[in-house]
Design goal:
This protein is of the alpha/beta class and 337 residues long. Helices cover 46% and strands 15% of the residues. The strands form 2 sheets. Strands 5-4-3-6-8-7-9 form a 7-stranded mixed sheet, sandwiched between helices. Strands 1-2 form a two-stranded antiparallel sheet. A hairpin with a 5-residue loop joins strand 1 and strand 2. Helix 9 runs antiparallel to helix 10 (295-332). The longest helix is centred in the C-terminal third of the chain and has 38 residues, at 295-332.
Amino acid sequence: MMEDRALDIMQDDGSAQARPGVAAMAREARPAEDFCVVVPALDEAENIPELVAELRDTFERHGLRGEVVVVDDGSSDRTAALVEEHAAAWPALRLIRHRRNFGKTEALLSAAAATDARWLVLFDADLQHGTDEIPRFLAALEQGWDVVTGRKVGHYQKGIVSRIYNWLSRKLFDVPVSDLNSMKAFRAAILDEIALRHDWHRFFVVLAHARGYRVSEIDIDLVPRRHGVSKYGGKGRILIGLLDLMSVAVFLFFSRKPMTFFGLGGLALASLGVLVGVATFALRLMEVSTPFGYRPFLYLVVLLETVGFLMLGFGILGELIAQQNAELDRLKRTPRR
């Protein structure tokens, strides 16, 4: 059990921001009483009846007083119609519809904007995780964690790719969990502090951990999909995932201090240009002949100085943009709940 105290983190401007610990959480609604299960669904009509039935059964058996928001992410089958039919008989169930397929990240954000729940549980519509995992995640949140993610146990079709991706993420971002792209439960207010771009739901844990939120994980069973195939997947996502990984790394490491990257690189190139220029001038004074003459060295000096000062300029512009983003972030950072 974590210490019964409040946790403070530092904001970008150096001031302290209170983060509720176990004592503070005791004064707010328990996760099991104020949560929303978010279910992104794309062409999952075959799974909807069993999904809703099992969710309802879990809610009743465990006395859960939350809600379920299914986001129909531009399905071309009867996914939305089936959810609406079941919602008529179960008030805890709601439907949100996207005009077209936007992606799981956008589905998560749409559901978060439509609920006032303090806690969110991201749950897949394919039932590859049992609905009885939900109360386990809520119980873990009650221990004082801000984010709880699942560590998949069982056969996983993309196991090798997933292990490589998770290993790279742990090495790059030093996150204290081993499985980033799985079922997860978290404090809804976290979404007010981090910017989730398209497909960045996979990096939610990374971004939340970078903001100082407490992260943990629990083992969850992975069972075979009952109907259909995965809609949020594809071989092309491997390359996209790696590029997104690089984007997140740049965002976390350099976006707040652009001059660290552009400035150091620009100074290094400009300094190298000066050294090459001095060396070329010295060779010319000593009348040392070279196979290509001195002109290529002069072109190299011009190139190094030009690129170096351009990078310095990018660094200055980056710092101005980072300052504006920090001001906007400070204005938006008001308690949502």
